[in-house]
Design a protein that fits this description.
There is one protein chain. This protein is mostly helical. Helices cover about 80% and strands about 0% of the residues. Helix 16 runs antiparallel to helix 20.
Length: about 450
């Protein structure tokens, strides 16, 4: 099959007629695609992060009321982690269809699935109402959220990556990552509004509204995504009849090193971001007795700062190189791990907010170029499966256990945060090594269906 692909490789590089409209038309097309990827990602991540906020502030009381405060928090974070264990499954399932039938149709389906699960969480009865079935249903819906998100990131990233012109590819591929920051900011802001209600109203119905609002945003996201054209790169693969019959098996057989590098590149980001955005909510409010509003405002500032940082450094990476930006960002994360917790320990709102802003500014440049780095590790006909598997495995290994491990480390050290700082720094060192190795490899061309790289 590879010999046949080589014979037709030049034919695969022709300009897709849908995009042969001159520089202005192509620029307008990629902006529309990038915006659709951003909106869809923002909506899905709003839903996913909303659960994380509720897991820190609401679910221990409503779904695990008979546990001690520590045990309730750990149990709630465990249900939070269930979504991460579902994400690799979602990446495999939706990655298969993304490589077989197309990027566009696949990531529209993930958006709908996420919206249904989030809406139903807002309707769940609590432990006091139906007993043990309440946390069981919560876990089931969190699992569905994880499945949807497992397929979402790969589709959004590849539509942007495979539509973008070479000179701006890093910038436009960063837009789905920008959607992550927007989703976190939106979910935290909405939750903060309802958290300002009197406690009885907040725990009675206020938190539910934040989940139910997902229905409107999902509808908007689906409408926008349906207007996006299929990836021209996938259209070429399909035109050649080069779709993989078993994308996952091919990835595991021929691209094992690429998968390991993808996991490593994402690992530190996942660990660090969930320590900042999820564990820190619990740490600030329960250990340091900081007002809930201070912690929630910190997450909003983290998101806003991260979004600006992604745009600036992704644009810069098209000029100086994405690996330079990635390595610089990772080194800064290692160095800031301990100062971050020192600033939180002051209990001063301004210094807490400074900590999260700096963390976002130095950490998100790596995340902004992650999509482009991962996409260039895999050939087009297995690219959706490859990047989804690598990214979501890193989420499961790095993001899922991070709040639980950090909570355990805090309590085992009598509240001293330095063990958590060491944990975060070590995760970033793993990513630094993976980024460096990836930078030494030859990148796969965006249309190169003949690559033999393993």
């Amino acid at each position: 099959m590879k010999e046949d692909l080589r014979k037709h490789a030049m034919a695969a590089r022709v300009i897709d007629p849908a995009f042969d409209r001159g520089a202005v038309g192509r620029r307008r097309s990629i902006r529309h695609v990038a915006f659709a990827s951003f909106i869809g990602a923002a909506v899905e991540w709003y839903d996913f992060f909303l659960y994380g906020t509720a897991a820190a502030l609401v679910f221990p009381k409503l779904f695990f009321p008979r546990f001690s405060p520590l045990a309730g928090t750990l149990a709630s974070f465990a249900t939070f982690g269930i979504g991460f264990f579902a994400r690799p499954i979602g990446g495999v399932v939706f990655g298969h269809f993304g490589d077989r039938i197309g990027r566009k149709s696949t990531f529209v389906r993930t958006l709908i699935l996420m919206g249904v699960a989030t809406f139903l969480i807002g309707l769940l009865p609590t432990f006091e109402q139906i007993g043990l079935m309440a946390p069981i249903l919560l876990i089931a819906l969190r699992f569905v959220q994880g499945l949807a998100l497992g397929g979402e990131w790969g589709g959004a990233t590849l539509l942007a990556f495979e539509h973008a012109p070479q000179e701006d590819r890093n910038f436009y591929t960063s837009w789905p990552q920008l959607g992550v920051s927007a989703g976190l900011a939106l979910s935290t802001a909405v939750f903060a509004v309802f958290a300002s209600l009197p406690e009885k109203q907040f725990f009675g119905w206020g938190w539910r509204v934040a989940f139910l609002l997902s229905a409107a945003s999902i509808a908007l996201g689906v409408v926008i995504r349906l207007r996006v054209a299929e990836s021209p790169v996938f259209a070429r693969v399909k035109g050649l009849g080069a779709e993989s019959k078993t994308p996952l098996l091919e990835v595991l057989r021929d691209h094992r090193l690429a998968v390991l590098l993808a996991i490593g590149v994402v690992f530190g980001t996942m660990t660090g971001s969930y320590i900042v955005t999820t564990f820190s909510l619990s740490y600030l409010t329960q250990q340091l007795r900081v007002a809930r509003s201070v912690a929630l405002v910190g997450n909003v500032l983290y998101s806003a700062s991260g979004a600006a940082s992604i745009l600036i450094f992704a644009r810069l990476s098209d000029r100086v190189g994405k690996y330079r930006i990635a390595i610089l960002s990772t080194v800064c994360q290692v160095l800031f791990s301990f100062p971050f917790f020192w600033l939180l320990s002051t209990r001063e709102p301004s210094l807490i907010w400074l900590a999260v802003i700096v963390s976002a500014v130095i950490g998100t440049p790596l995340y902004g170029v992650t999509g482009a780095i991962l996409a260039e590790l895999f050939v087009p006909h297995v690219r959706y499966s490859g990047i989804s598997l690598g990214y979501q495995m890193a989420a499961m290994l790095g993001g899922a256990p991070a709040p639980i491990i950090a909570t355990y480390l805090i309590h085992s050290s009598s509240g001293a945060p330095w063990s958590v700082a060491t944990y975060a720094a070590s995760s970033s060192v793993i990513t630094l090594v993976a980024v460096w190795i990836a930078s030494e490899r030859q990148s796969v061309g965006i249309d190169d269906v003949t690559s033999d790289q393993a």
